[in-house]
TrEMBL record:
Domain Glycoside hydrolase family 38 central, residue spans: 315-398
Stretches that traverse the bilayer: none
Protein's UniProt name: Alpha-mannosidase
EC number: 3.2.1.-
Organism: Muntiacus muntjak (Barking deer)
Pfam families assigned to the protein according to its UniProt record, in alphabetical order: Alpha-mann_mid, Glyco_hydro_38C, Glyco_hydro_38N
Family: Belongs to the glycosyl hydrolase 38 family.
Cofactor annotation: Zn(2+)
A molecular function (GO) term: metal ion binding
Gene3D superfamilies per record: Glycoside hydrolase 38, N terminal domain (3.20.110.10), Glycoside hydrolase family 38, central domain (1.20.1270.50), Golgi alpha-mannosidase II (2.60.40.1180), Golgi alpha-mannosidase II, domain 4 (2.70.98.30)
Length: 718
């Protein structure tokens, strides 16, 4: 090729570096081959394994063995594990290491050092903290607000040291790289065609194959790559360019990929003095070691995260906070069960002997749930942005894993307490386990079929309890039991029907709660409220309920003698589904068509009062004459024992919500309104770790959607 073809591009290079530069190339381009393989998005894991994943690993390993200079990063550990366990041969063992944690260490004796989180919808500050604690050296993210990314590119701030924890600060910091506006894909450099899924038409949805690299086509490929590299180089402070090569479901034929890219790279490297840059295959480690060698003083970013995420002025990715909420709830329960099962199993195995339990079998049950819980943390899983058949797969894997751990925990109980393992002659036997490391005093709720019950602990002593009609099943009863359990310990309870007449028997009987019902109240559209209040009291709070509306009116904190007006209402946004109004709402994006409107016409209330718990049940009806409520709030005030054991119980107003069925194209919210002067600031947790300050943000295009934030565990206003 004639050198004059490159004159415009070389002039651009001249603007970036002074004339008279040495012959050594100034830019060093690190080509990082990868394949973005979603663990459940449009297709199940099994379908993806059959359609392309197996081919990716088989052909990549073969190409890496043929040419030592080639590289490849394997990101999705589940696919690599399935391929390794079921397909890889012994000859492959020394050639490929994937990113991961326990599996990699157990199998290969290595630990990952670099993260690659390029597709999650925003970036949490907890993640870099955890990676730093785990010994990672660098962290790669991509999806942050479009306007913020533009500003960071302009100011060369896409790389920084992130101190994700306010309390740990510099003790746990990590070098972070934000992919530029091109993201993790390299358009125009895919030669291996499309993955073929059963029943999926070749409609152009997947990447199209490029023409082969030949003597005639190489000028176009080189020009495209050169423009891309120079643009990227202007956004970073060092002369090292991270160039991700790959995209969704690519490298299913690695032979074609490498054969074509080899030609391009060899041509550019043979003209490196003209182009002023060189190219090499690399891993993330190769790139970050080069960046580190320049010894640049990097900007330090504090504990703030990159949430919520907007890809453009109309697309605020806050819709996934509520998508497939049933799976979100199941994943939360599965995670809690896994933690409890692991601690119970570990403690049991350490306390020899365990005659009836095979530890290998126990580990197998835990491992099955570990993989299911890990799988559902994928950015297209827990978010609810996957296809229905994929949702079925996640539910099946979680349910199967939970069943196995339940069986394991029951076996441990039987192994530890064989005298209590069988069913009661009449009634039932319950074991409550505290997986935490400290003593907990709390009220647990069991479901029984009879209101007259007798409950005792394993020593035969009566236990404080309260029975009331179940809010879930009209024919059943909720049995509330006050319990104090040391850390990592059990409590055993015997529950039996009490005798018809207990006079003179001395047999304990739980208190039967008293229920007061209030009829339906229509939604008020104005007028005075708060003239007819009823209090619900414990030692810490008085909740006032407005009998004209059946809504909460206010909360009085008794010790500080402070009263706050608090009202809770279910509201709904109508989602934009009309193309004429611009982009529409989906599982990812929240696109409200105006402000939220009330989602009910009447509220029914009842107060269930007892010595342990007082429960306020509010049912919200979409239409006045509906037989079943669409929404419900269950508020509970505990009457704990005197002293420190009951202190936390007293200070907690516990609420549980029921929602559904919802109408099509609606987004439901629970709005809690107060008379507090909050400065339009709220605080929410960051992945269940530390709190983030969330100030109200005015936006020209998308104010409502961009002011919703994720809450994994807690939020507060002050």
């Amino acid at each position: 090729m004639e050198p004059r073809v490159w004159l415009p591009l070389l002039l651009r290079l001249g603007l970036m570096w002074p004339l008279g530069a040495p012959s050594e190339p100034r830019l060093r381009v690190f080509v990082v081959p990868h394949s973005h393989m979603d663990v459940g998005w449009l297709h199940t894991v099994q379908e993806s394994m059959q359609a392309y994943v197996t081919n990716v690993y088989n052909t990549v390993v073969e190409e890496l063995t043929l040419e030592k200079k080639r590289r490849f990063i394997a990101v999705e550990q589940e696919y690599f594990r399935l391929w390794w366990d079921g397909i890889a041969s012994e000859d492959d063992e020394t050639y490929l290491f994937a990113e991961g944690h326990g599996f990699l260490y157990d199998t290969f004796g290595v630990r990952p050092q670099f993260s690659w989180q390029v597709d999650p919808f925003g970036a949490s500050a907890t993640t870099p903290t955890l990676f730093a604690l785990a010994g990672f050296n660098a962290h790669v993210i991509s999806r942050i607000d479009y306007d913020l990314k533009e500003a960071m590119q302009k100011d060369q701030e896409l790389q920084f040291v992130w101190r994700g924890s306010r309390s740990l600060s510099a003790q746990q910091e990590i070098f972070t790289h934000v992919l530029d506006q091109f993201g993790y894909c390299s358009e125009g450099f895919n030669w291996d065609g499309e993955a073929s899924f059963p029943g999926t038409p070749l409609n152009g949805f997947y990447p199209q194959i490029q023409i082969p690299v030949t003597e005639d086509s190489i000028p176009n490929f080189t020009s495209l790559l050169l423009n891309n590299v120079l643009t990227r180089a202007s956004w970073f402070r060092t002369p090292h360019v991270l160039w991700p090569w790959g995209c969704d479901r690519e490298f299913l034929n690695a032979s074609l990929q490498f054969a074509n890219m080899d030609i391009i790279m060899e041509y550019i490297n043979s003209h490196a003095s003209e182009f002023n840059f060189s190219m090499e295959y690399a891993t993330l480690g190769d790139y970050f070691r080069a960046v580190h060698s320049d010894q640049v003083a990097w900007q330090v970013r504090d504990h703030h995260d990159f949430l919520p995420y907007s890809s453009d002025m109309h697309h605020a990715w806050t819709g996934f906070y509520a998508s497939r909420s049933g799976l979100k709830a199941l994943a939360r329960r599965a995670s809690a069960l896994l933690y409890a099962g692991e601690s119970m199993f570990t403690r049991h195995v350490l306390l020899a002997p365990h005659p009836h339990l095979d530890p290998a079998w126990g580990l197998q049950q835990l491992q099955q749930l570990r993989w299911a819980v890990s799988e559902v943390q994928h950015h297209d899983a827990i978010t609810g942005t996957h296809a229905l058949k994929v949702d079925d797969m996640f539910v099946e894997h979680l349910s199967s894993g939970m069943q196995g751990v339940h069986t394991l925990m029951a076996s441990i109980i039987q192994d530890r307490s064989p005298a209590h393992s069988g069913p009661e002659p009449v009634g039932c036997f319950a074991v409550v386990y505290n997986p935490l490391a400290w003593t907990v005093t709390t009220i647990i709720t069991l479901t029984v079929d009879f209101p007259n019950v007798s409950i005792t602990d394993e020593s035969g002593r009566p236990v404080p309890a309260q029975v009331q009609r179940s809010k879930e099943m009209p024919s059943a009863y909720d049995l509330h039991v006050l319990t104090t359990i040391p850390g990592l310990s059990y409590q055993h309870y015997s529950i039996r029907p009490s005798r018809s007449s207990q006079e003179g028997t001395g047999e304990p009987e739980p208190f039967v709660a008293k229920t007061t019902q209030f009829g339906r109240r229509l939604r008020r559209r104005g007028g005075r409220v708060g003239r007819n209040l009823v209090p619900v009291v414990n030692d810490c709070y008085i909740i006032f309920l407005d009998l004209d509306t059946n809504l909460m009116h206010s909360v009085w904190e008794r010790r500080s003698n402070q009263k706050v007006h608090v009202t809770q209402r279910f509201m709904e946004y109508h989602a934009i589904t009309d193309f004429s109004k611009g982009p529409f709402a989906d599982n990812y994006v929240f696109r409200p068509d105006g402000r939220a409107e009330p989602a009910w016409e009447a509220v029914r209330m009842e107060i269930v009062a007892g010595p342990l718990v007082t429960e306020i049940r509010q049912d919200f009806y979409r239409e006045v004459n509906d037989s079943e409520p669409t929404f419900a709030i269950y508020s509970r005030l505990a009457h704990g024992p005197q002293g420190s054991d009951g202190e936390l119980l007293c200070h907690r107003i516990e609420q549980e919500y029921r929602v559904g069925p919802l109408e099509l194209n609606r987004e439901a919210i629970l709005r809690t309104s107060t008379d507090m002067n909050t400065g339009r600031v709220l605080y929410s947790d960051n992945n269940g770790y530390q709190m983030q300050r969330r100030p109200y943000r005015q936006d020209t295009w998308n104010t409502i959607a961009r002011n919703y934030y994720p809450m994994v565990q807690s939020a507060f206003i002050q």
